[in-house]
């Protein structure tokens, strides 16, 4: 049995995964790896069945960490032998970089002020740190049976995604966000596989965050694309996130820059926001469940039509938005310093598996259900059995399916607008 790859080699593959998927030329590379017995002929067939090169690269990177402790060095040598030495150099450089201090405590609290109240040596990520798997594709039949009730989502790319990731801060009150780099890389990979053009900005000040969002809102490409994504990963408080300079950016200002007034190119198009940051200082201690089934209910509510005036259609200032938060108002979010935050781990896994046939709001319900089951452990402290609860808010007006992989490159245009 080959066994697994060394952890620091796995980490290097995770950090550079998006670049490797985009830049590797797989055919000759796979032949070299077969010759060195890192891959088998069956694995070659499985990889090549994925079709386009970026899916083959993704499948190859999924397999490598399970192909023994020598797989990394053989892989780097194969890259050099196939004139892809620049990729090998960057991988090897990653393994020489000093690792963040983890000691034996991989979980930290991303609270206001960034101070670590407690760390949990027992929390583990669900996928052992290998990142999200390949995103499953939507079938033609599913698209044809659901597109009429959904936002249009067929452009290539679907839209532009901006990820702002702050892990290092100039003020001593805000700790380094160990594990934040993992969140950034798995999100880049996820949104790339969901056919978004991904832009990233790391360790930028509050003023720079606003200027980047202003620039993003004015990109002319929005008018030709079907949606957009904003993801912000940082320390935070209720209603705001920190820039790398320790100053706050109000989330309402973020939403305003993408609203119908300030970004008319995205009017009536879905705008997705993902916020990985604390929203207060309280640690959720949880409660014991009473016997019996969970019961939920809410009264119905009717609202009469307001009537319509002749003339141009008017829109609310903010609409067609959905925002997912890692935690509830007033509480801290939890982050594994090796494998990333609970919220991003579950978000990437759920979207990878279910985007093919589940709309975004229902996927966020699935994320909530997973977060609800998680539990921290700090025996002997007041923080033992701490909990987290994610949530989302929505002004979406249609179902939001991402329809990954649809239409296929060879799909007839008639399938996009069936009669």
Automatic annotation (TrEMBL):
Residue span(s) of domain Caspase family p20: 157-282
Caspase family p10 domain location: 311-404
Pfam families: CARD, Peptidase_C14
Source organism superkingdom: Eukaryota
Limits of the CARD domain: 5-94
Family statement drawn from the similarity comment of this UniProt entry: Belongs to the peptidase C14A family.
Protein name according to UniProt: Caspase 2
Natural source organism: Ranitomeya imitator
């Amino acid at each position: 049995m080959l066994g697994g790859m060394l952890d620091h080699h796995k980490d290097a593959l995770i950090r550079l995964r998006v670049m490797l998927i985009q830049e590797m030329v797989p055919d000759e590379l796979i032949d070299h790896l077969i010759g060195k017995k890192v891959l088998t002929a069956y694995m070659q067939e499985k990889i090549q069945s994925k079709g386009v090169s970026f899916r083959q690269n993704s499948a190859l990177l999924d397999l490598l960490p399970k192909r023994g402790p020598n797989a990394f060095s053989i892989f780097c040598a194969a890259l050099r032998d196939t004139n892809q030495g620049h990729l090998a150099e960057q991988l090897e450089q990653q393994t020489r970089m000093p690792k963040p201090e983890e000691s034996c405590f991989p979980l930290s609290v991303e609270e206001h002020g960034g101070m670590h109240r407690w760390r949990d040596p027992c929390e583990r990520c669900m996928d052992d740190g290998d990142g999200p798997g390949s995103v499953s594709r939507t079938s033609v039949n599913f698209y044809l049976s659901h597109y009429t009730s959904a936002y249009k989502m067929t452009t290539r790319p679907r839209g532009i995604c901006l990820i702002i990731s702050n892990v290092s801060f100039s003020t001593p009150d805000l700790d380094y966000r160990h594990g934040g780099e993992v969140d950034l890389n798995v999100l880049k990979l996820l949104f790339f596989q969901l056919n978004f053009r991904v832009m990233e900005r790391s360790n930028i000040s509050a003023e720079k965050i606003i200027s980047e969002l202003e620039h993003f809102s004015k990109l002319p490409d929005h008018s030709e694309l079907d949606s957009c994504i904003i993801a912000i990963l940082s320390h935070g408080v209720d209603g705001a996130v920190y820039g790398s300079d320790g100053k706050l950016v109000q989330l309402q200002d973020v939403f305003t820059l993408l609203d119908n007034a300030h970004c008319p190119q995205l009017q009536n198009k879905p705008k997705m926001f993902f916020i990985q940051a604390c929203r207060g200082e309280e640690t959720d201690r949880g409660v014991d469940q009473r016997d019996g089934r969970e019961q939920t209910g809410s009264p119905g509510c009717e609202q009469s039509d307001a009537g319509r005036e002749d003339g141009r259609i008017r829109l609310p200032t903010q609409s067609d938005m959905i925002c997912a938060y890692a935690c509830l108002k007033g509480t801290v979010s939890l982050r594994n310093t090796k494998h990333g935050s609970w919220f991003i781990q579950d978000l990437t896994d759920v979207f990878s598996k279910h985007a093919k046939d589940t709309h975004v709001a229902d996927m966020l319900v699935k994320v909530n259900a997973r977060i609800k089951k998680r539990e921290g452990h700090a025996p002997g402290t007041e923080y033992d059995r701490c909990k987290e609860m994610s949530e989302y808010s929505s002004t979406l007006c249609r179902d939001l399916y991402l329809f990954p992989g649809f239409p296929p490159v060879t799909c007839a245009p008639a399938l996009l607008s069936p009669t």
